[in-house]
Design a protein that fits this description.
The structure is a homodimer of 253-residue chains. With 253 residues, chain A is an alpha/beta fold. Chain A is built from ten helices and eight strands. The first copy, chain A, has two domains: 149 residues, NAD(P)-binding Rossmann-like Domain (Rossmann fold); 98 residues, Orthogonal Bundle (N-(1-d-carboxylethyl)-l-norvaline Dehydrogenase, domain 2). Chains A, B: InterPro entries: 6-PGluconate_DH-like_C_sf, DUF2520, NAD(P)-bd_dom_sf, P5C_Rdtase_cat_N, TM1727-like_C_sf.
Chain lengths: 253, 253
């Protein structure tokens, strides 16, 4: 049984804590954070503390705080023997002060109060020492079936890719919602299409799954769409993305 | 029991045929199309024909052909008594020649060989005559729980919204895939994130679900992302979408 201390009380800390507890294979011996209100949520389940000078001993210290605070939080752990990891997609492993360090990055978006199935979430691990990497792999495999060893450069690229498929995609959902609301139509008309679009690329490559006027270079439909749009930003996005799709499939037409 | 003739043998025709057959409440009395090879797929299940001058009588004629061919196919039906509908998101109802006309637009993306659950797919109906509208509602409700009466203008806007949440979103998945492949990372690392991003907006509004550097106006992360991108189109998309998100949430920061 691995012993873990979690540092942080936010969304990610809550989800990771929940996954470890559920696994039955990891003991979260302590949860440390500044926010006393949030600590209360964990108080019946493990030892909590808001004192970074009285962190308990553990095999792994999981820092789940904002990117900017990782270096500072890690500094409280420099005399510890366990492995100190952060959970960020963008911060270098070297931001962690203690030498026995690593990264434990679950590639998913976490929503407050919404349960996620950790077993399918890729966990990207990194460590300097081979033995630490092995421990992180064992730890990650207690909660996920998809554990990948990835270096800091790859992780940054992966996080960038995640911005495209999560942040930007969500923004486009918002544009769809706005267009619906302008016409007095409920957003839930689009919800099944959004699900199916995501489901399609679980088995097909997005390249193969692409459809629509831009892919067919259907100038007439694109021109009539542009006439319907009022918002300047939406027009610019429609033009840029259509142009990009057109270019990508030009040779096939 | 409503009698239906389907005109067309493509993806949508196949899916609609399948849904009507499965419902047990609609009899597809004939399937008419030009493509003899495709007609064979239906030959054991209903009467098929490639002769548009020998279309059987039915309550509803469902035209499921390419947008450009709708008007012509409808012209073969001008002496029929049943309702003639097309299934397009963009074509005006008036493109149909016979007077007893309407629209039967299932808002979903259909993939060859991939089953979809029609019961959750919104079907948007339109007709000139109230009685035709009533028949179309009964027909649509045999296969879907989400039947909406929507006029041609609203339908065009809805189709435009669908381009944003389906075509453009899928293109962004493709950008994510490219970035992964550049780093030798498999696309399946992103698949759970893509599913969760879509699932989130089944219950939350996209406005509330938005996260990421642009929403937080985290200039540092955005600058480092831009440094990682090589493809000019990806850079332009990153900048435009980040700017749009930034603007949308500016007041909240």
């Amino acid at each position: 049984m691995l012993n873990v201390v979690i540092l942080g009380t936010g969304n990610l800390a809550k989800h990771v804590f929940g996954a470890f507890s559920k696994s039955g294979k990891v003991q979260v011996v302590q949860l440390v954070g500044r926010n006393q209100e949030s600590l209360k949520d964990f108080a019946t389940q493990t030892t909590t503390s808001d004192d970074f000078y009285s962190i308990l001993d553990a095999d792994v210290y999981v820092i789940a705080v904002k990117d900017d605070a990782i270096a500072e939080v890690s500094s409280y752990l420099k005399d510890k023997k366990g492995i100190v990891v952060h959970t960020s997609g963008v911060v270098e492993m070297s931001a962690i002060e203690p030498e026995n360090r690593g990264v434990f990055y679950p590639l998913q978006t976490f929503t407050k109060g919404k349960a996620v199935d950790f077993s399918t979430i890729p966990i990207c691990i990194e460590a300097d020492a081979p033995q630490s990497l092995e421990t992180l792999r064992i730890l990650a495999e207690t909660i996920s079936e998809k554990v990948h060893e990835i270096d800091s450069e790859q992780r940054k690229k992966l996080h960038l890719a995640a911005v495209f498929v999560n942040n930007f995609t969500n923004y486009l959902y918002g544009v769809g919602e706005e267009i619906c609301l302008e016409e007095g139509l409920p957003f839930d008309l689009l919800q099944p299409l959004i699900m199916e679009t995501a489901e399609k690329v679980q088995t097909l490559s997005p390249k193969e799954a692409q459809t629509g006027p831009a892919r067919r270079n259907d100038e007439k439909s694109m021109a009539s769409h542009l006439e319907l749009l009022k918002n300047e930003k939406h027009i610019a996005i429609y033009k840029l993305l259509s142009e990009a799709i057109k270019q990508a499939y030009e040779k096939e037409l």
